[in-house]
Structures are given as C-alpha cells and as structure tokens.
Amino acid sequence: MRILITAGPTREAIDPVRFLSNRSSGKMGYCLARVAARRGHGVTLVSGPVALRPPEGVTFVPVTSALEMLAAVKRHLPRCDALIMAAAVADWRPRNVSPQKLKKATASRVLCLVPTPDILASLRSKKGRRIFIGFAAETERLLAEAHRKLRDKNLDLIVANDVSRRDAGFEVDTNRVTLVDASGRVQALPLMTKMKVAARILDWLEACGLSARVLQRSAE
Ligand code: CTP
User: Fold this and answer.
1) How many CB atoms lie within 10 A of CB 16?
2) pLDDT in tens, 7-38
3) Is residue 106 situated within a structural domain?
C-alpha cells in the first residue's frame, strides 16, 4: 500500500521567536512510518518539528504549522491508499503574527487565537476508497470522544489514547490504546511499546485493505 502518515506537533508562530505548540514528540507517528516501511509499504511521512531522525526508506516532508501540514497532506493524498493522522495538530493559531519580537514591557498581553483547519474533517470529500485512521488524544470520556471523532471525521479506525497517564501517550516510548473501528469493533490493547502498537495498527490496516480489495474484485 502507499501510506501517508503525519506525526509530531505543529507550531503556530506568535512572533519570530515564540510559538504555540503541544507535547507531542512524534514517536508514535515515526514508529508507524518505520514499521510500515519495513513491511514494504510506500511511506510518505509528513512531520511537524521533532527531535527524531526520519526512518530509512520513507519520503520525508517536513512542515511547521497546521496550514503547512494541511497543504502537504492535500498534495500527497491523491497518490495514497491510506492516511494515518498521528500528528497532534494545534487547534488554534494566533490571528496576527508579529513581524518583530514582542517586548515584555507590557505587564499582560491578550493573544487572539483563531481555529486552524481540521485536516481530517476537511478531507471528507477526497476520501473515496481510501482508508482513514485517526487518533483521539483524551484526558476524559475516552471512548465516547473516540466514537464521536470516528463519526464526525468519517474515519475507518480511531486509535483512542488516554494521554492523562504517565506511561502512555505523549513523550514516552510506551502506549496503551483502544482501537475502535467503523463497524463498531472495540479492541483494548494492553500497555506496549509504540513499535508494537504501530504493528497492531498496521495489521488492522493491511487486513482492511485486503478485504476492500477482495470486495472490489467480487463486485467486478
Ligand atoms: N486532527 C486534524 N486536524 C486538526 C486537529 C486534529 O486532522 N486541526 C486530527 C488528529 O491528527 C487526530 C484526530 O484529528 O487524528 C483527533 O485529534 P484530537 O486532537 O484528538 O481531537 P480534535 O479534533 O482536536 O478535537 P478536540 O479538541 O475536541 O479533542
């Protein structure tokens, strides 16, 4: 398969030296890219700024902001069979980016934020037969939120991730996730390395891609 994977945070500039971002390290997305490339898939990795080296054999597309990530995903999606959005896209950006460094002279400062585009939601009409996988990073109501995002973003699979725990989610090498697919199947996985989580997600994707092809052939 040709798989488009996003990873890492995005950075939304405030001025030439400051930005808004989040705690994503990119580890989960890079593990997915590494495992997919090792299995022989064609991988394009669109990554926000992280301290990781891109895995060998992937087409690497570095980006900084949510708007840049959206443009890169739109550019590469037409040639792909599946999209895995593991990136932690910033939900807001400062409305105005100061061309000069803001000075601390003022005691308080109000930043006006505007929403960034929801990349997955904005690709709804371009999905076609492609398989879309998203992540749900939650601190409460994990499964309810995962189901809502699966439906609202028109996904085939969502990886629900409780990011309030110290051994799972942001920055660490392990993760505890629940896979929820569009047919209603819920699979809670135990704590495991992000490489193993990546392998399970790719097992699901490969099985899904295979059955889609079988269905397509039997309809022909
Ligand atoms: N996502 C996206 N574009 C955004 C924000 C998120 O495509 N602007 C994707 C993420 O990559 C992830 C999924 O949507 O695969 C869910 O992201 P998450 O941060 O959990 O949820 P949000 O959509 O931001 O919703 P909420 O703020 O209500 O949690």
Assistant:
1) 12
2) 999 999 999 999 999 999 999 999 999 999 99
3) no
What span, in angstroms and rounded, lies between the C-alpha atoms of 111 and 24?
Answer: 22
Q: Give a yes or no: residue 32 inside a domain.
A: yes
The 3-state DSSP class for residue 164 equals coil
Examine residue 105 and state whether it is found in any structural domain, yes or no.
no
Tell me which residue range forms the domain holding 9: 2-96+111-219
Measured from the CB, is residue 136 less than 6 Å from ligand 1? yes
Rounded distance from Cα 89 to ligand 1 centre (Å): 6
pLDDT tens-digit series, residues 47-99: 999 999 999 999 999 999 999 999 999 999 999 999 999 999 999 999 999 99
Residue 155's CB is within 10 A of a number of other CB atoms, namely 24
- Does the pTM of the predicted model rise above 0.90? yes
47 lines ligand 1 (CB under 6 A): no
**Number of structural domains found in the chain:** 1
How many Å lie between the centroid of ligand 1 and the Cα of residue 52? Answer: 22
**Nearest CA residue ID for atom 6, ligand 1:** 89
Confidence at residue 219, expressed as pLDDT on a 0 to 100 scale: 66
9 lines ligand 1 (CB under 6 A): no
Q: Which atom from ligand 1 is nearest to the alpha carbon of 90?
A: 8
Give the Cα separation of 146 and 205 in Å (integer): 18
In a domain, 41, yes or no: yes
**What average pLDDT is seen over the chain?**
94
Q: Is the CB of 91 under 6 A from ligand 1?
A: yes
Task: Tell me how far the alpha carbon of residue 84 lies from the centroid of ligand 1, in angstroms.
Answer: 12
Strand partners, 82: 3, 131
